[in-house]
Amino acid sequence: MTSRNATATRQRILEHARRQFARHGYTAVTVKGVADAAGVSPNLITRYFGGKDGLFLAATRVELPVENSVDGDRSTLGARLAASIVRRWFGTSGEDPLLVLHRASGERPEAAEALAAFLDKSSLEPLHRYLRGTGLPDAEARDRAAAIDAFVLGVSARRRVLRAELGDPAGLRAWLATTIQRLADG
């Protein structure tokens, strides 16, 4: 590599780290293994991320645009959320940081805590606010949001974490849309 591009190198390291954490879990991944895969010195990982824990935290930084999917009529919420979910599951390049965090949550208590806090903030609360805003009483809106959140997390665990086939994207989207809509409608 003739030119040094710290941003590109850091990104390459993160891509390899996500892939390895997603496939092998936290415990089995080594700094040296990620460095070798990324074609860099292990010292660079220490320099950029402070070590394995910092690398893991950077590799599992997640964005979940639920807020973008809840705008609109409640009668089409299932279709909007299902489209967003399937797009993420089939369209995320490399390994999805959310998937990495989900898989690691069984090994590392801090990963489980981070996943729970992230889902509360980025999924459960926006859904709760949205459903309450559509006229549902607060407790009912919270219960329906929790049901949708648990359903999607369960499907994600079964189909992504346990590495079952996701199936046909269109079929999966239709099934998710119907089920999410039933949960939203009560």
Oligomeric form: single chain
Question: What is the number of helices?
Answer: 10
Largest β-sheet summary: none
Number of strands: 0
Structural class: mainly alpha
**How many structural domains in the coordinates?**
2
- What fraction of the residues are assigned to beta strands by DSSP? under 5%
Secondary-structure element series:
HHHHHHHHHH
Rg from alpha-carbon coordinates = 19 Å
Low-confidence segments, ≥5 residues, pLDDT <50? none
Distance between the ends: 58 Å
Shape annotation: elongated
Give helix % range.
Answer: over 70%
Organism: Embleya scabrispora
GO molecular function: DNA-binding transcription factor activity; transcription cis-regulatory region binding
Protein name: TetR family transcriptional regulator
Pfam family, one: TetR_N
Structural write-up:
The structure is a single chain. With about 190 residues, the chain is mainly α. It is elongated. It has two domains: about 5-60, Arc Repressor Mutant, subunit A (Orthogonal Bundle); about 65-185, no CATH class. The chain has helices spanning about 5-30, 30-40, 40-50, 50-60, 65-70, 75-90, 95-105, 110-135, 140-160, 170-185.
Element layout with pairings:
Elements: H1 6-28, H2 31-38, H3 42-49, H4 52-59, H5 66-69, H6 77-91, H7 97-104, H8 109-133, H9 138-161, H10 169-185
Helix pairs in contact: 1-2, 1-4, 1-7, 2-3, 3-4, 6-10, 7-8, 8-9, 9-10
GO molecular function, one term: transcription cis-regulatory region binding
Organism: Embleya scabrispora
Keywords: DNA-binding
